[in-house]
Design brief:
The protein has eleven helices and ten strands. By secondary structure, it is an alpha/beta fold. The strands form two sheets. The protein has a six-stranded parallel β-sheet with strand order 4-3-1-2-9-10, with helices on both faces. A four-stranded parallel β-sheet has the order 6-5-7-8, sandwiched between helices. The longest helix has 19 residues.
Length: about 270
């Protein structure tokens, strides 16, 4: 009898600071609709983009260790650019299951741009990481990469998922922070280097005021998850997903309708 047949198919665990990782979960659901899912949000630690590298290098592996011990997943996805660029190696060293990270989509952006000018929107922590410098040197050395920290977009995305109107001023400021830089007039491709940001793709496109391509890594991450679990037999029926928070469970109530669209209907506190 297989794990799927006896009801013990290990879940896929997605981890983020808040709801941003839903952009990754959504793409994974398209490829693996019957995979059991645990989605964990470290609301007690939000926002990661304002924390030090040392804090995150300690916090993320510790939390994921607790989550893996409780839920016994077959694979972990760190659906957070900031956590991945800082703590991915630490997490892989601590866990004995596959760990998929999230990194800025600099390579595909360099292949898409026609003008050679690329924007990168991320948290303060992400845009300053040496990892980003290495990606730019390896895949976009002949391109102009404009970086801008837009941590306010995290809160705008969270508001949108609660059914509220996202902060239009924060969205406009994020795009202005790119286009008003030198060479910004030639910008034609923007990397959304925080998993929260694709949730605001439509609003960012309006704020751009002209044709701009937006790219993120969600589809590539989903393909990687599907590849790493290619020999897995999934349950015959779709299972309800579980949401786990490190914060107050009452704070999750406004998000329930949004989570339901991703197949999540159980809610727990870590």
């Amino acid at each position: 009898m297989t794990e799927a047949q006896n009801g013990e198919c290990p879940p896929l665990l997605f981890f983020d600071t808040g709801v941003g990782g839903l952009s990754v979960l959504g793409e994974t659901r398209h490829l693996l609709p019957k995979a059991p899912v645990i989605y964990a949000a470290d609301y007690a630690g939000l926002p990661y983009g304002m924390k030090s590298e040392a804090e995150l290098a300690a916090r993320v592996p510790a939390l994921l260790g607790r989550l893996v011990e409780r839920y016994k997943p077959q694979l972990v996805t760190i659906a957070c650019n900031t956590a991945s660029t800082i703590a991915l190696d630490h997490v892989r060293s601590a866990l004995d299951i596959p760990v998929v990270g999230t990194v800025p989509a600099i390579k595909p952006a360099s292949e898409l741009t026609k003008t050679g000018v690329i924007g990168l929107l991320g948290t303060k922590a992400t845009i300053r990481q040496p990892y980003v410098d290495r990606l730019a040197a390896d895949f976009a050395a002949d391109k102009m990469l404009l970086r801008h920290a837009a941590p306010e977009l995290v809160y705008a995305a969270e508001a949108k998922l609660r059914g509220e109107q996202p902060d239009a001023g924060a969205i406009a400021a994020a795009m202005s922070g790119l286009v008003e830089q030198a060479d910004g007039a030639e910008l034609d491709t923007v990397i959304l280097a925080c998993t929260h940001f694709p949730l605001l793709r439509d609003e960012l496109a309006v704020a751009a005021g002209r044709p701009v391509q937006f790219i993120d890594g969600a589809k590539g991450i989903a393909r990687r998850i599907a590849y790493l679990t290619g020999n897995r037999t999934w349950p015959d029926d779709e299972r309800e997903g579980t949401f786990v928070t490190t914060g107050d469970i009452a704070d999750i109530e406004p998000y329930r309708p949004a989570f339901a669209r991703y197949g999540i209907s159980r809610f727990e506190k870590l």
